[in-house]
Amino acid sequence: MRVLVTGGTGFVGSHTVRELISAGHGVRVLARDAEKAKRVFAGDGDAVEVVVGDVTDAASVSRSLEGAEGVVHAAAVVAVEKRRAKEVEDTNVRAVELVVGGAAERGIDSIVYVSSLGALFHPGEPLHDDSPIATAESAYARSKAQGESYVRRLQDAGAPVRTVYPPGIAGPDDPGLSEVNHTIGVFLNQLMLDTSSGFEIIDVRDLATIITSMLRPEIPPGRYVTGGDYRDWPDMIALMRELTGRRVRYLSVPGRALRTLGRVGDWIKNHVYAFDFPLSGEAMDLATQWPGSVRSPVIEKLGLDYRDSRQSYEETIRWLHRAGHLSAKHVGKLAE
Fold first, then answer.
1. What is the CATH number of the domain that holds 115?
2. Is there a domain that residue 213 lies in?
3. What are the beta bridge partners of residue 170?
4. pLDDT at position 28, please?
5. Separation of alpha carbons 241 and 162, rounded Å
6. Is 207 domain-assigned?
7. Mean pLDDT (whole number) for 28-38
8. In degrees, to the nearest 5, what angle opens at C-alpha 325 toward C-alphas 324 and 328?
9. 232 alpha-carbon distance from chain centroid
């Protein structure tokens, strides 16, 4: 199958491209930066066809869809800075309309949309395939919610779209420094929080396998939660200590206090001074009220063996050190 991948030079996209190649598919990548694509796929020879263009440009998307038999849409701008709010919303929503909508219009039978469990976040019961779209606060969350609504309308109209919902995504070989890998770095070089709720991840390589499997024609269109490894914050602190063999700094703060602090920061940003403050109300909701998730029965039936999360964290930390994001002091006995 000839598969178009958007976001192919990113973290999820690049691992998905290699998984598709391993599974025997032909791969085409739509990328804005030809030099970055050349660098990311330097070890893949001629296995990756690169179309230079932008996911928000109709002509570029149309050109990349030509002759495609499958589509994986993994491109998105992930940014929380207030100054980038319009860029995030305009880019992410337009990309879903052009790529996923364009693939459906062309009659492509295998379309995979990579969403996020954050788009379904509600405190309380674990998230699952039938969870409703979350109420969004940030520009990024709004863009995901709008994309979700659009894709669900396509699915209701009979479009063959399979949406996958991963939790946080960790793992080695990140072309940039994606959100969860950055957060793991913060755990070790700055501070962890001991608070309510916990942290849930899936290994990027396992996610790439799921995405590739979702292209199979026998997989019905629908919404699929990938599940992941959930640990409460005290367990996360203990794991970081165990893996590195060093003392990890942490601060115990009640969840309610963190949520209040986040909303105070939001109010100051919106009414006094537009500074970048990482503890937003929305981020603190996720950090202190994350409910975990239930793996989709359809994904369960695929019989995939997820990596042990301890292995994922260990290999992620080793990569963060090799890539220069963490010092030997921060990674302790995992330093190479």
1. 3.40.50.720
2. yes
3. 203
4. 97
5. 39
6. yes
7. 94
8. 70
9. 20
C-alpha–C-alpha distance, residues 113 and 159, integer Å = 12
- The residue among 91, 123, 130, 44 whose CA lies nearest residue 281 is 123
- How would residue 159 be classed by pLDDT, with cut points 50, 70 and 90? very high
Q: Which residues are 199's β-sheet partners? A: 231
Strand pairing of 229-232 and 198-203?
antiparallel
> Which pLDDT value is given to residue 273?
67
88-92 CB contacts, 8 Å cutoff, 24+ apart: 88/139, 88/140, 88/143, 89/139, 89/142, 89/143, 89/146, 90/56, 91/55, 91/56, 91/143, 92/140, 92/143, 92/144, 92/146, 92/147
81 has a pLDDT exceeding 70 = no
Range of the domain at 169: 2-177+201-229+291-306
Is residue 156 included in any domain, yes or no? Answer: yes
The highest-confidence range among 120-124, 225-229, 275-279, by mean pLDDT, is 225-229
Query: In total, how many domains does the chain have?
Result: 1
Two tokens, residue 253: 């703060």
- 232: phi then psi, degrees, rounded to nearest 5: -75, 165
- Would you place residue 45 in the very low, low, confident or very high pLDDT band (cuts 50, 70, 90)? confident
